[in-house]
Design goal:
Elements lengths: L1 H16 L11 H15 L2 H10 L4 H11 L1
Helix pairs in contact: 3-4
């Protein structure tokens, strides 16, 4: 039973490092930020926009968030 566990653990380690298989592509960070902003817009709260700005101060959508807050 111990050897079975060791085998499973080594398979997990290999899949995380890319050895012995194909790794999934890296997530699209820009798409994730845009989805986050879409959620903020749907929610429409001051707190949501402020949090977005704190998390992504230099992102172009942060300027949109600042504009929303200034209204």
């Amino acid at each position: 039973m111990v050897s079975l566990f060791a085998f499973a653990a080594s398979d997990d380690a290999n899949s995380q490092t890319g050895e012995g298989g194909i790794m999934a592509p890296a997530p699209d960070g820009e798409a994730a930020v845009r989805r986050e902003y879409e959620g903020v817009v749907r929610k429409g709260t001051r707190e949501g926009y402020e949090l977005f700005i704190r998390r992504h101060p230099d992102h172009p959508l942060a300027e949109d968030a600042r504009s929303w807050l200034s209204r």
